[in-house]
UniProtKB/TrEMBL annotation:
It comes from the Bacteria. Belongs to the AHA1 family. Pfam families: AHSA1. This is SRPBCC family protein. It comes from Paenibacillus violae. InterPro entries: ASHA1/2-like_C, START-like_dom_sf. Residues 12-130 form the Activator of Hsp90 ATPase homologue 1/2-like C-terminal domain.
Length: 142
């Protein structure tokens, strides 16, 4: 099964795309840090300082300003595809599709938590890119 989350960000697609792949920008809305610029074939180390957690993603495909696909593993390998579709010159639809959930009742809490995480991440992205707010990222309490 897969989980899809979409949000409109009031910025051009290239700016939204760069927020994900540029290690200088990602810390303003998602992870504390990224080991390097995201490119196809690279393994990227991601860090959450606030939660003392790190992990890795394997970047499968990058299409400049249009698409990012990566795999990560938290029990099962999941493929995440993020697409950036211009709605008009100043607005971009960001769609996150995470695939790899088992098709059973036990996966429902995982799907709900995953959806919550992506909605939160995209909300932080919106706050950062549209309003310059970079303090939302670490506000979620577990």
């Amino acid at each position: 099964m897969n989980n899809v989350t979409k949000m409109i960000i009031a910025k051009p697609a290239n700016e939204v795309f760069e927020a994900f792949v540029d290690p200088e920008k990602i810390g303003n809305f998602w992870f504390s840090s990224s080991s390097e610029r995201w490119e196809s074939g690279k393994t990227i180390k991601l860090r959450y300082d606030e939660y003392n957690a790190d992990g890795e993603i394997r970047v499968k495909e990058i299409v400049q300003d249009e698409k990012i696909a990566f795999e990560w593993d938290y029990g099962h390998v999941h493929l995440v595809t993020i697409t950036f579709t211009p709605k008009d010159e100043m607005n971009t639809i960001v769609e996150v599709n995470e695939d790899g959930f088992a098709d059973d009742k036990e996966s429902i809490p995982l799907l709900v938590g995953n959806k919550e995480g992506w909605v939160y991440t995209l909300t932080c992205l919106k706050g950062y890119l549209e309003h310059g707010i970079s303090t939302l990222r670490a506000a979620l309490v577990h």
